[in-house]
Amino acid sequence: MPTVCMLPNIDELGLVTDGLCLLGHQFIYEPPVGIFSFQLHDTNEVGYLTYMNRYGSLLNARVGRYCSIAEGVFIGPWEHPTDRISTHPFVFNAFAPKDTASDFSFEKFEIYPRIVDRQNVIPSTEAPQTVVGNDVWIGRNVTILQGVTVGHGAVIGAHSVVTKDVEPYSIVAGLPARTIRKRFDEKTISRLLALQWWDYDLASARERLPYDNIEAFIQLLSGMIDRDEVALLDVMKVVMSNVEGECKAGQFGSAEDPGSTQQPLECTV
Known about the structure:
Blueprint: E1 4-6, E2 15-16, E3 20-22, E4 26-29, E5 33-35, E6 38-41, E7 43-46, E8 51-52, E9 56-59, E10 61-63, E11 68-69, E12 74-75, E13 130-132, E14 137-138, E15 143-144, E16 149-150, E17 155-156, E18 161-162, E19 170-174, E20 177-182, H1 186-195, H2 214-226, E21 237-243, E22 246-252, E23 265-266
Parallel strand pairs: 2-5, 3-6, 4-7, 5-8, 6-9, 7-10, 8-11, 9-12, 10-13, 11-14, 12-15, 13-16, 14-17, 15-18, 17-19
Antiparallel strand pairs: 1-3, 4-21, 19-20, 21-22, 22-23
């Protein structure tokens, strides 16, 4: 599939970027989001107010709301089979024209197509989904392997390699990443997970919610929810599609009206 790259800041789409390459089929996000010099392979989803710094990539990943992602983070990176004659892509067809995820390809050279195995393809669309919850902070140069789930509120230390699921509100680090401690006690974590504050419109309640006092925040927001004094966050979703190297985008649905649609928007610039 041809690559689509976009120039800085597509304001009408709620996308803050200094360069983004849509290498796969579809990118779904809740605007606004900030994505800087990132590569998006296959189908990915990114939640409200999440930002991802430079030189990283997503492959078949779902990232929640309010996530802070540093430079050089790779979420669900491509894996090579180890049970074939070679681990090189010529044995699993990663760079064939119909399945390529990059402009980097040996297909342009005459010798390469003659050795590629086109019968036993492992398409990147078969990669298991990698999930990052809401309110997750990921440090610089972290790799999260395919199929891993990072729980809500987790923190991943710089230069870590995450090989297994991370529990909510855990702080992990290392190679492989191991739990250092929890952000809060178990009772508080349970209450935060039950509250799911990231699903609510904090702007409508900002003056009454102390961000620096966890106990007070939980009590106040819980009471406001019980009394219907705070609404669910109502955001549209933008869907960008790579259609034969041309980017198409449209806005679809919301919490209030999940079936609503708007006219498609052009996102190639």
